[in-house]
Every structure is written in structure tokens, then in C-alpha cells.
DNA sequence: ATTAATGTACGAACTAGTGAGTTCACGTTA
DNA sequence: TAACGTGAACTCACTAGTTCGTACATTAAT
């Protein structure tokens, strides 16, 4: 008779598990080597299944890459949606949002690399994804509310644009990770040094508040 | 008798010209497709010479790519060295330096893309270049002097680090170009819009001065 | 028995790099 | 001054190795 739905050790014939396994391995491979540099055979080999399954479940290299992008973006969007911005003072909310981005990016180097890679490809794959093209952004909504409350209270400048603020946060958080290799090669500075990390985390908040309250 | 050293139209057998031609075409190709995506055959075809000459002059794909990187970095370093920071007020000098970076990056999209690509490759090629590894940075010297003068005059905060300031400038100027594709795909905002461009250029200076004088 | 899921082997197209020979400019010699 | 020698610049065709994708066979579940 043998166990009906294999309890744990066997894990044969498990659609979800196979898909998830492929996605996980593909994320690492694409983030590591880029879209062109990644090898389908290599991904297949690191998987517990075969190349045939990649084509069976995803269709091809490009569709697999798009699925990887979708998973990565949906993860950070879900995280952003969790921040409860309503119960925070405007200043504190801005700092909280900036630190969330700071921490998420540092904890997910694969995401940072995928975004860089996708920009090298001029976001053509995001544009081709029905899930991602025009995906709503919870962080931006929170930012908009915070800026409005801060302005209503006379504490924030009137001309601050939510998307501009988001861009400043992103540029700072993305740059220190995405460009850390050329930075290290040329200036000899390690962006991941714990002391510097804390300093930068505080510095970003300071800069934002200084700008918004000036 | 025929002209000895071909006056202009013929241009056969010209070492320098051939090398320069290859470098120019290779810069566009690498910036466009990335290191792995770039095709030596494609570069050769867009050149007025042949693939064999690429190997003759540069040795291989990787050495050609390194030569491209060296040319791009030396160009911006030369530009930075031209700024005469000594005769400017600290605030004005900071703004001038930031605007120089802002303008250079916008005028050289190939450079921005090459830097992104090189970071995806973890700066391994820069590290392999004798010219680039540890290349001195004129902009950083100017920045250091400006911060010192500003602090001595009691106008700048004492704890401002030159490399941190440089990073803020770079992150802002690089991000708005390097990540403009994903930004456009997700937020629908065009970073190259002239009005927004001017706004961002001013905004960066404001943010820096606000931070330094707080 | 039928179908979903999986594995194996293969092929057509591509890609970096090379082997081998050619052309040209120029200096040297007969 | 004309034939010759030489090395740099150049051309063409080829190869050894990849790489994405698929045809076909097989196994498990219902």
C-alpha cells in the first residue's frame, strides 16, 4: 500500500514542492549570474528535479525569470503593507518606513541584485509580467498619509512629494548594497561593517527629517 | 606615386584609429548588453575591422571589457579634477560638486550602466585592473577640504564624513538613472522629465546643505 | 486504463577563441 | 633604383565547447 501522500522522506510527485524548489534555486542563480549569465542546466542540476520540469512548469528560461521577479517583489510589498503608519507621529513614521526598507534590503541581497539586473534589461520583463506591471505600493500610500499629516501639523514642508521621498530612501538603501563592490574596490570601504551600518541607518533618518522640516 | 600616409579618406593600417574604434563600439555593446550578454562577433561587426583584431589588440573579451571600464572611469576622474574648489564658499562648493556628478551621470548613461554591470560582477574586473584598483579620487579630496573649511567656519557639523557625503551624492545621482526603468514600470514616473530633473538637481543640494548645517 | 508527472538523450544554433596565411609600409642591399 | 627582407596590421575560415529547448520513454496516481 505504501503511504498515500508521502509523509516526508520520499517527496516524489509533489507539484507544489517541485515548483517551489525550482523557484528557490532559480532565484539564487539569476541573482548570482544575471539573466543572460544564468544557465538553465545549472539551475536544473541544483534542483532536486530535472530540467524537463522547469520547462514543464514554467515554460522557459524567460518565464522562469519573470516568476522569480514576481516572488521577490511580492515579498517586499507584503512586508511594507504590515507597517501600521496611522498610529505614529509623522517624524517617527518616516524613520520607521526608511528603516524598514534599509533592513529589508540588507536582509535580501538577492532582491537588490535582481532589481539591478532587471534595470540593466530596461525592466522589459517586469513590463511583460501581468502581476508586476503597475503593482500597487503600500509603502507609498503610508508615505503619502504621513507627509499630509506632517504638513497639516505645520511640521513638514508643503512641497514634499511622496515619490521623491521614496526615491531618496530607495536610492540610499539600494546604493549602499548594489554598488558596494565598486565602492570597496575604489575607496576600500566596506559598506557592510556593522558600525557603519548603524551610522548610515541613523543618518538616512536624520537627512529625511532635516529635509522635510526645513 | 599616391599619397604616402593616407590623408583621410583611406585610413587603412592605422593602429590607433583601429584600437579607438574597437573601444568605442565595445563600450556601447557592453553597456547595452552587459558583459555576458555582449557578443564579440557583434562588436566586431559594428567595427570597421574584424574580430581577429580585437584579439590582436586586446587579447580577449575580458581584457577588452577592462579596457572599456578604464576609459570610462578615467573620463569622470579627469572631469572631477577640473573643479576648482578652493575659491568657493563651502556651501557653494558642495552644491557645485553634487551638480557636477549629477550632470556627468546624466550625460553618460553608458558609464552608469557599466558601473551597474560591474557591480553585478562584484567588481572583479576593476580589481583585476592595475589602472583602476585604488584609483585616486579628486572629488573626494575636494570634498574633504570643503568639509574642513565649513567646519572650521562653524557652519558644517563636525561629524560629517567626506566618503559618506560622496555616497549620498552618488546614490542619488546613480539611482535616478540606473533604476529608472523599474521605477517607470512600477510607479509610472519618468525620471528624465526636464522639469523633474531640475527639481531633483536642486533637491539634492538642499538635502546636503540641510544635513551638513543641522 | 488514462492521465499527470518525471527522466534521458539528443540536436540545432550559437560563441569565444585560434590557425594559417596575406597585404602593406619601409628600410636595406645589390 | 629595383629587388629583397621584415614585421606590424589585417582577413578568413574553422573548431571545440556551450546552451536552450524538445522528442520520446517511463513511472506513479486515480
Automatic annotation (TrEMBL), chains A, B:
DNA-binding region positions on the chain: 39-58
Keyword DNA-binding: yes
A Pfam family assignment: TetR_C_29
Gene3D superfamilies listed in its UniProt record: Tetracycline Repressor, domain 2
Domain of life: Bacteria
HTH tetR-type domain residues: 16-76
Keyword vocabulary terms for this entry: DNA-binding
Coiled coil segments of this chain: none
Keyword DNA-binding: yes
Name used for this protein in its record: TetR/AcrR family transcriptional regulator
Amino acid at each position: 500500500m505504501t503511504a498515500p501522500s508521502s509523509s516526508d522522506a520520499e517527496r516524489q510527485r509533489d507539484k507544489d514542492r517541485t515548483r517551489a524548489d525550482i523557484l528557490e534555486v532559480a532565484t539564487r542563480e539569476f541573482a548570482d549570474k544575471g539573466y543572460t549569465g544564468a544557465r538553465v542546466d545549472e539551475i536544473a542540476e541544483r534542483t532536486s528535479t530535472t530540467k524537463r520540469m522547469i520547462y514543464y512548469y514554467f515554460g522557459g528560461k524567460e518565464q522562469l525569470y519573470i516568476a522569480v521577479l514576481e516572488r521577490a517583489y511580492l515579498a517586499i510589498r507584503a512586508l511594507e503593507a504590515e507597517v501600521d503608519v496611522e498610529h505614529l507621529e509623522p517624524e517617527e513614521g518616516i524613520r520607521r518606513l526608511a528603516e524598514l526598507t534599509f533592513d529589508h534590503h540588507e536582509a535580501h541581497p538577492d532582491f537588490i541584485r535582481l532589481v539591478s539586473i532587471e534595470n540593466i534589461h530596461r525592466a522589459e520583463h517586469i513590463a511583460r509580467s501581468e502581476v508586476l506591471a503597475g503593482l500597487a505600493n503600500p509603502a507609498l500610500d503610508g508615505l503619502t498619509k504621513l507627509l499630509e499629516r506632517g504638513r497639516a501639523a505645520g511640521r513638514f514642508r508643503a512641497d514634499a512629494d511622496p515619490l521623491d521621498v521614496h526615491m531618496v530612501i530607495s536610492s540610499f538603501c539600494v546604493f549602499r548594497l548594489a554598488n558596494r563592490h565598486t565602492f570597496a574596490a575604489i575607496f576600500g570601504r566596506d559598506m557592510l561593517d556593522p558600525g557603519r551600518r548603524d551610522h548610515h541607518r541613523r543618518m538616512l533618518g536624520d537627512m529625511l527629517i532635516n529635509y522635510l522640516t526645513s
